[in-house]
Design a protein that fits this description.
This protein has 164 residues and is α+β, with helices and mostly antiparallel strands. It has three helices and twelve strands; from the N terminus they run H-E-E-H-E-E-H-E-E-E-E-E-E-E-E.
């Protein structure tokens, strides 16, 4: 009887234990350098990214391990990012290039991008709906530093913002 009770308790706690976390947040840092360079880092939860990627692209994204580092294929990340994260200036989309990514031991995914901005510009328009189509509680914080210092939190209802 004790065995059946133990099996029941294991199954019960597994079924009703929260397998998802309650907080869905990404943090994007955009640094606008004086030489017109944009340096961007996006930090989000890797398994959330995998889940959303699979739902949206109808295929899995698998991590790659090399020299004790884990990462995703940058070309696959770029396909997703092109649809969900962009920066525009004077109604022209800024070309962003992925320079790398890494999956940290804590389960976070860091994506590094670079781009160029035009001198003497007074604003940057950011579109950010990373993960929100499949994770409605997702919030995407963007911190802009450089000629404009500002921060904004994107969500399922607010996917676009002009930093001035």
């Amino acid at each position: 009887m004790q065995i059946y009770l133990n099996i029941f308790l294991i199954l019960f706690t597994h079924i009703f234990s929260p397998s998802e976390h309650e907080t869905y947040v990404s943090i994007t840092e955009i640094m606008a350098r004086e030489n017109e360079a944009l340096e961007i880092s996006i930090e989000l939860i890797a398994h959330d990214f995998e889940y959303v990627y699979k739902k949206e692209m109808n295929k899995s994204i698998k991590s790659i391990s090399k020299e004790k580092k884990e990462y995703y294929d940058s070309d696959e990340i770029k396909i997703y990012l092109d649809n969900h994260f962009s920066i525009s200036q004077k109604d022209k989309k800024t070309n962003l290039k992925i320079i790398g990514n890494e999956i940290k031991l804590d389960g976070s995914l860091l994506i590094y991008l670079e781009g160029k901005y035009k001198k003497n510009i007074n604003y940057i328009h950011v579109n950010n709906d990373l993960l929100v189509n499949w994770l409605p509680n997702q919030q995407n914080i963007v911190n802009l530093n450089g000629f404009i210092k500002s921060s904004f939190t994107f969500n399922k209802n607010k996917k676009s913002y002009v930093f001035q």
